[in-house]
Amino acid sequence: MIYLLIFIFQLLYNIFKVYEIKYTYENKIRKLVINSIILNALTLCSTYYSIDHLLKGEIAVILFFILGAAIGKWFALTHFENYRAKILKLLNNEDKKNNKNPLDEKINIYGAITTPKELIIETLINFMWGFMGNSIVVFMSKEIDVMVFLNFIFYYMLISYIVNRDKYQTRLGKFIILPGSAALGAYTGYKIAQYISFLL
Predict the structure, then answer these.
(1) Of 52, 84, 99, which closes a domain?
(2) Between residues 121 and 59, the one the model is more confident about
(3) Does 191 share its domain with 134?
(4) Which of 58, 82, 87, 136 could covalently link to 151 via disulfide, CB atoms 3.0 to 4.6 Å apart?
(5) What is the rounded CA–CA span in Å between residue 175 and residue 171?
(6) pLDDT one-digit tens code per residue, 74-124
(7) Which among 161, 171, 87 has a CA at the least distance from the CA of 121?
């Protein structure tokens, strides 16, 4: 079971790694930030389980580690863009009026003009900001230095984005999106950090 987990972690890590390079080249900051958070979480999981079992003398873990990495990179480079091209081709056969992505359409919520896509991304970023900021406290109290260090890295990456983005000008952003999603993230981080601390 652990070998399968290591294989899956490495598979996903290398898929997201390919997209990290892609988003960096295309200068898609938001996608890059979200991708980096997932990528680093996968790195942590894969490394932890691999080293743990390798130190126990289970050499077979190396095979699953390398195999997952190779297949993940191959799959990302040969399949994902092909699927995307097929989907775009299918959509282009529809009427142009129906081609517009509904996530990019402007909507008015509580006095704010935004898009569903922007709303989801900003909510997720605020959630992760609260998540990272609050889980640090738990790891500090348990004196788990590695997790504290990793949390600081992710936390200040998010701070860098939040400080440099446009300030919220509406009641939706100021009083609902930011405090609501950040508070939910903080509570989730607190609970998950407790569970991780128990496992470590």
Answers:
(1) 99
(2) 121
(3) yes
(4) 136
(5) 5
(6) 776 666 555 455 545 655 555 444 556 777 788 877 777 888 888 888 888
(7) 161
